[in-house]
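anyone seen this seq b4? input:
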Amino acid sequence: QVQLVESGGGLVQAGGSLRLSCAASGRTFSGYTMGWFRQAAGKEREFVALRAWRGGYTSYADSVKGRFTISKDSAKNTVYLQMNSLKPEDTAVYYCAAADRPAATSRRYEYDYWGQGTQVTVSS
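predicted toks r here
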């Protein structure tokens, strides 16, 4: 049974940084794609970033390019989202997701497993 547990959210001032973690368990993720999505109040869940577990391919939403970085620690089975230069519009619940395929895209329906989410609030 796959479990994804996010942590690291919180309240930060605009221009600040946060690092989110996603601890993955339940199977070997070498053939998976790991993603981060977010959902602001009253809006649909949107893609933020993804990384192929094997090979290191990454992709980012235009809104976060140059500010966010997705990475992983294979030994800890953990995926990270380093968020710098945060803006108030980054405020949302951030979700970790896992797709059982090595080349998933930004489409939500490609992801099979989801975490419970962690709140990120950026004050102006």
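The first strand starts at residue 3 and ends at 7. The chain has a mean pLDDT of 96. kinda curious what u guys think
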